[in-house]
Amino acid sequence: MDGVRRLKKLIADLDGAARSEIALAAGEGRFDELPQLTPMAKEIAGLAARWTSEASPTPEEPARIEATEAPAVSAALAGEAAPRVSAKLKKTDYPQFLREKRDLVKLGWSPREKGPYEHRVPKAGVDAVASAVAAKGKAGHRFTMDEILKALATGKGDELVPSYQTYAVVSWLKWAGMVLQHGRQGYTVVRPQTFASSIETAWQSLPQR
User: Fold this and answer.
1) Strand 115-122 and strand 103-110: pairing?
2) Which of left, alpha, beta for 75 (phi over 0: left; psi -120 to 50: alpha)?
3) H or E element: which one contains 79?
4) Largest CA distance in the chain
5) Structure confidence by residue, pLDDT tens digits, 100-118
6) Could you count the other beta carbons within 10 Å of the beta carbon of residue 40?
7) C-alpha dist (Å) from residue 101 to 98, 116, 144, 172, 178
8) Whose CA, among 15, 21, 43, 206, lies 20 to 30 Å from 153?
9) Are the C-beta atoms of residues 121 and 106 closer than 8 Å to each other?
């Protein structure tokens, strides 16, 4: 079985390297490379999920951010745009993110319903969550979802961001390679110094519907 273990470790190492490469590309603003890198990373992540499940991290707390969102930084700022989104997808193809007018749209997979779902977040909500993440993640500080939710809990009326929208935005930031998740230990911003400008670039790069 030593050969099996060694091969599983190689697959896990390759998965980690793919995630790091996407995080690096996103952090350096090389968004034009992400449409090519993302499908490759997803294939590798699927292989790793299949063969290295013994070493897989436990899923994060809310069911809304499914285990199928691996890799953590699988950033599809992809020009695979509308045709791909509208095509019939496998559950391993989720999540997908796109823009519709001034809304962020997350297309996710629900294990409970065994089918896709859609969450929408107005741009104002995206900006509010991104600001909270920037504040909590400055200087490389590791933050938790509870910290972000508490920071946003002071909003009133139209300023209040529902928790499911907060999770959707953080999921997008993770997908876009701007935030890294450390299992249940929280998240870090990949490049705090350029995070604010990267948000707008990533937003403009989203496929539109």
Assistant:
1) antiparallel
2) beta
3) none
4) 59
5) 999 999 999 888 888 889 9
6) 13
7) 10, 21, 30, 17, 23
8) 206
9) yes
